[in-house]
């Protein structure tokens, strides 16, 4: 995948996530998993000046965001991630199974790709492992 196309995909993912967040924020951590027809994506963010973690699926209830709007943006996010993964395959790069996308309010961004086989773990185990590795110990960047 050429660098410009990657940058465009990263920007589209970031813009969609930021459109989903209804307040000022300090950082966002997104997890996406895509393999053999399975897809999962979620993110956490911290409101500006807070150490509280907000889970993306709590946004509609907590912030009076319409479920329809949220679902539309969630589908856009899925589409951007799907295009990103397909571009890896199209460019004959090894397709990742999951990624962690980190974004700070100052614009710093980091993407970590993982190629591990994930079919042997249930979704709850994967999520708990990811949370432990990414949301604890001050690892926000």
Structure description:
The chain has a domain at 1-70 and 97-115: BH3703-like domains (Murine Class I Major Histocompatibility Complex, H2-DB, Chain A, domain 1, 2-Layer Sandwich), CATH 3.30.500.20. The protein is 42% helix and 26% strand. The protein has a five-stranded antiparallel sheet with strand order 3-2-1-4-5, with helices on one face. It is α+β, with helices and mostly antiparallel strands and 141 residues long. The longest helix is centred in the middle third of the chain and has 24 residues, at 67-90.
Name a few traits of the molecule.
alpha+beta; Murine Class I Major Histocompatibility Complex, H2-DB, Chain A, domain 1; 5-stranded antiparallel β-sheet; 42% helix; Antitoxin YezG; YezG-like
